[in-house]
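stuck on whats below:

***
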Amino acid sequence: MKIEVSTQVNATLDAVWQAWTTPDDINQWNAASDDWCNPRSQLDLRVGGRFNYRMEARDGSAGFDFGGTFTQVQAPRLLAYRMGDDREVEVRFVADAQGVTVTEIFDAESMNPPEMQRAGWQAILDRFARHVENK
């Protein structure tokens, strides 16, 4: 099952791409809520390059690594990757008169209901938009 989430970002395509692919930026927006954080991001932005983002509860009660391998890198319009569990994700960046629409399409996992997954990915995407617009 594929799940799709998207957001509109009032910024240039280059600014959106930079914020999506720069570790310092990723560390500021990559969390679904204020009680979580992303203290570390590493990425090798090329086809076959790997990435790893560390996501943690701010109180230290939980954490996990989110990582995978880039399968497509077409800056600044498309980024695709395969996660460690072989699920695939595609991120599209489309500029228009209002800014940039960022759309993520990802394979659902089987442990959580699809709506929970959609809500979590949407929350992160919305934080991304706020981060870019407030830079």
Q: What stands out?
A: The longest strand covers residues 63-74. The chain has a mean pLDDT of 97.
